[in-house]
């Protein structure tokens, strides 16, 4: 299955010309996260000034990356991330992260996620990162299972609560 998808898909570094398509996918990601996992997710973020600036910098900065999946000229998914700084109280090596990851529904479970993951790993190694991290919303069992298949292990847990 992976080889079949690989023949019809192209994973490449995003360019500024891809920005609006990436914003559209990011908006769908925000909507999915909002509806399924995090009601505090800002549904307007992807097209906001802050969202656009974040995505533009991720595309253009050497310490960040955005990869897109293209099928017959259409961007059907994206993955962004970059080099991150660990907490000062831990002895962590240089680390990269997977920050935003979204694939259109019709393209899921066909090996595309693995292709994105391998692109991120290659980028991280080229940038001398020794660890890769990702944050996943609680309840996103498909996401957690995917990352575990890629070799990730649970490492930290963040808890929040509302204050009255």
Word description of this protein:
With 164 residues, this protein is an alpha+beta fold. The protein has one domain (2-148): Gcn5-related N-acetyltransferase (GNAT) (Aminopeptidase). 37% of the residues lie in helices and 23% in strands. It is built from five helices and five strands, in the order H-E-H-H-E-E-E-H-E-H. It has helices at residues 2-8, 19-36, 49-60, 112-126, 141-149, and strands spanning 9-13, 64-71, 74-84, 95-103, 131-134. A hairpin with a 2-residue loop joins strand 2 and strand 3. The longest helix has 18 residues, at 19-36. The termini are far apart. The model has no long low-confidence stretch (mean pLDDT 91).
Strand order of the largest sheet: 1-2-3-4-5
The CATH C-level name is Alpha Beta
Number of helical segments with 4 or more residues: 5
Q: Beta fraction of the residues?
A: 15-25%
Number of domains: 1
CATH topology: Aminopeptidase
Order of helices and strands: HEHHEEEHEH
Shape: globular
Low-confidence stretches: none
The computed structural class is: alpha+beta
Summed over residues and divided by their number, the pLDDT gives a mean of 91
**End-to-end C-alpha gap:** 51 Å
Overall helicity:
25-40%
Based on the coordinates given, report the CATH architecture: 3-Layer(aba) Sandwich
CATH homologous superfamily descriptor: Gcn5-related N-acetyltransferase (GNAT)
What gyration radius follows from the Cα positions, in whole Å? 16 Å
The number of distinct β-strands equals 5
Major beta-sheet overview: 5 strands, mixed
């Amino acid at each position: 299955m992976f080889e079949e998808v690989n023949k019809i898909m192209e994973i490449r570094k995003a360019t500024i010309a891809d920005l609006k398509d990436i914003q559209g996918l990011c908006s769908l990601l925000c909507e999915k996260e909002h509806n399924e996992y995090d009601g505090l997710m800002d549904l307007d973020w992807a097209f906001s000034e802050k969202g656009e600036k974040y995505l533009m910098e991720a595309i253009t900065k050497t310490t960040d990356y955005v990869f897109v999946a293209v099928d017959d000229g259409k961007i059907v998914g994206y993955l962004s991330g970059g080099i991150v700084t660990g907490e000062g109280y831990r002895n962590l090596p240089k680390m990269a992260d997977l920050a935003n990851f979204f694939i259109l529904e019709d393209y899921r479970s066909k090996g595309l996620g693995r292709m994105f993951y391998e692109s991120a790993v290659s980028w991280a190694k080229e940038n001398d990162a020794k660890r890769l991290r990702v944050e996943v919303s609680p309840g996103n069992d498909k996401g957690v299972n995917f990352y575990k298949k890629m070799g990730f292990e649970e490492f930290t847990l963040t808890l929040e609560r509302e204050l009255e």
